[in-house]
Structure prediction request, 347 residues.
Amino acid sequence: MTPRRAVLVISLLLVVAGGAWWSQSRPAPPAPAASPVAASLGVGALGRIEPASRVRRLSHPGGMAVTRIERLLVAEGDQVAVGQVLAEFADAIQKDATLAQAEAALAEARASRDRMAAGARDSEIAAQQARIAALRAEETNAAREAERSETLVPGGAGTRAGAERARFTAERTAAARREAEAVLETLSSPRAEDLAIAQARLASAQAAVAKARADAALARITAPIAGTVLKVYARPGDQLGNDGLLDLADLSRLDVVADVYETDVPRLRQGAAAEVIVPGVATRYAATVREIGWQVRRTTQAGTDPVAATDARTVEVRLTLGEEGRLALMRRVNMQVQVAISPVGKP
Prediction:
């Protein structure tokens, strides 16, 4: 190595060592402070108008063979009460007749059981007692006649055939008397076996009525909640399809169901204030966060932006719409809106 090149190498090493010493000796720059703007941001999301009761789609019970509508008793926009009959199927009349027949059989079985448990009436018991007394008198007379006939045979005044006829008459009269006494005992106190049979027949009749009543109920569609008929899908004479009969909802309380990105959920809290923005309407309606969902799922709101994240993962958040918004949007169920939720710590 030439002296000149050695001097250049030593100079380069001194420069590198000085730079390293300078970087280690000077203080480190402070970390940038968190942006207050990011901490004060609210949450924005797309949502839809939905009744708090949800929209109930009513249809025929599963497994029914007859699904033709005979009578439709409501129209769109009607207010209905809980349990109100909304429609009847074509077999409702037949099932009502079966129910009436089962109820008549039940009444007959109950009357028979009660009659057997109560025993006979006083007049029936008195009549049976009188019959027994008459049979006893007849039995006594027949026994005497049989004895007299027997005594006449040895002397030739009577025949053996006449004596046998008299004895047979006495035995028959005694048997009739014993039968009448057994009937009287049954009338006075019915047997436990007979009561058990009557009770079993009554239970069978009750079961038949319950089945007939359930079948008759399946021939009708009733309202599970009080609410408003939103849409009717079938008319009298139509067969019910996949759409069912009608949509029913309680419009006294409206929700906004918002799909909030999973990364924004930590900035939400129950009771937070929010505003609902309806496209084309200048008024912003107040709402309050009521429920924060428990599951993360893919977004259900489809926008028009071709580059939007259609497979984004969101959490369903329910907001209670204020009275002003409810009155304005009660006929806009399933309408898409925008939601702006206030940040944590702000009313």
